[in-house]
Write a structure and sequence with these properties.
The chain has helices at residues 2-20, 28-50, 57-62. The protein is built from 3 helices and no strands. The two termini are 28 Å apart. By secondary structure, the protein is mostly helical.
Length: 63
Amino acid sequence: MNFLVFGTTGIMSPLVSALMGKTAPETMEQFHTAFLPLVIGIGIAIVLGFCLKETGWKVRKAS
């Protein structure tokens, strides 16, 4: 899990920096455009979370 967290951070940081440009964002539109990939990633993570199979103790007890 730590590898995934730090790996994703290492990949996304340069992407967000490139989308922001060399200088600080001058408008909120630039800021929103730069962080859009992060928002999309969170949305995908939520959708995929609903696809996970439950493996808790209640499921093990029933089988």
